[in-house]
Design brief:
single chain
Amino acid sequence: MGMKERSTIFNIISTLSTKFILLFGGFIISIILARLLGPEGKGIITAIFVFPLLIVSLADMGIRQASAYFIGKKKYEPSDIVSSIAFLWLITSLFSMLMVFVYFLIGPSNNYHWIILMIAIGSVPIKLINQYSKGVMQGFNQISTINLSQIIQLLSNFSGVLLLVWLFDLGILGAALTQIAMAFSVAVYYLFKISKHFKIRIKAVGDIPKSLFMKGVGFAAALFIINLNYKVDIMILDFMVNPDEIGLYAVGVSFAELLWQVPSAVGMVLFAKSATTKNTVDSVTRSTTILRMVLPIMALASIIIGLFAPYLISLLYGIEFAGSGSVLRILLPGVILITVSKILHPDLAARGYPLYALRVFIITLVINLILNFILIPKYGINGAALASTLSYFFAGIGFGFVYSRREKISMKELFFIKKQDITHVKDIVKKKLNRKR
C-alpha cells in the first residue's frame, strides 16, 4: 500500500493532540446542542441513537480489529481483505437495520416520530463503513488518517448543529440529521483514501470472510459486552424515567466521557503497535508503562472536575441542567478505574487474545444490570450513575488482576508509577528539545 509507519511516540502525541481538539470541539458542540434542545430534546436524541450505536458495535463483528490483525501480520493480500470486508459490510448492514427496526417497534422508542427513527436506522450502514475502514487504517498503522477522520467528523457535527438545529430551527430532527451527516462525511473520506490504493469490490475472496469472522468474533464479543456495559443504563432509563431526566443524565455522562478520550487515544495507538510487534515483552512493557503514566493524570483531572462540576455545568449548559452535576461527580471514580481496561485490553486484543478477560466484562455487566434495577427506582439518574461507577470500578480492578496474572507481573507494576517512568519522560522531552535546537 506504500504507507509509511510512524513511531509509537509520534502516534500517541498526534493522537492525543487530535483528542484535545476533539475534546474542546465536542465540548462546545454539546453545550450548544443542549442549550438548543433542552433536557427533553437531549434525552430523546440520546435514547433514540443508543441502540443503533450498540448494534453497530455488535455488527462490527470484530472485523475492524481482525482486519487490522491480518493486515499487520501480512497473512493475506490487502486488496483481497478490503474486498471481503466490503462483502461482510453488505450482509451485516442488512441484518443490523432489521434488528434496529424491530427494537423500535417493540421498545419505548415507538413514542418518538417515525422520521427520526428512520434516520437512526439509516445511519447504521454508514457507521459500519467507518468502523471497517478504521480497521484497515489501523492495520497499516495509519493513525494520522484516523485522527483526520475524527476532525472531519467534528467539523461536520459543528456545521450540522449550527445549520440544521440553530439556523433552520429543526430541533430534534436537525440533531438526528446531523448524526447521519457526520457519519456520511467520514465514510466518504475513508472510501476516498482506500480507493487511492485499492479497487473497492464487494466480493468474498476465498476463505478470508470466514477467517475475518472467526478471528473477529472474539473481538466482537468483548467489544459488545464492553459497550453494552456503557450503554445499558440509558436503555433502562428509557423505560423508567422521562426524556428530560435522560437528558440530564446524558450531559453528565458525556462530560465524564470527555476524560475517556485520553486512555481511548492511547489504547488505539497501542492496538495498532501491538498488532505489528512480535516481541510480547515489548508490548507488555510499553502498555504497563503508559498505564502507570496515564492513571495519575486521570485522577488529577477527575478531582479538579469533580470539585467544580455542578457550577461548571450550570454555567455552561444552563441552570436547567444543574442536576447533571451530581451525575458527573458520581461517575468520576469509575472513570479513573476503567482506564485500566481501556489501555490494557487493546494490547491483549491486538496480540490475538480479545476473549482472555471476557469473564471480567460479563461479570461487570451483570453487576451493572442488577444495580441499575435496584438503584434507579430509588435514586433515579443518580442511581444509574452509581451503578455505572461501581461496575467500572470492578472492571478496572478485575481486568488489572487478570492481566497481571497472565503476564506474570505484580498489580503494583500496573498502578504505581516508577522512578524510571519519570526519567523516561524527561529523556524524551530532552531529545525533542535538542532536535529543535
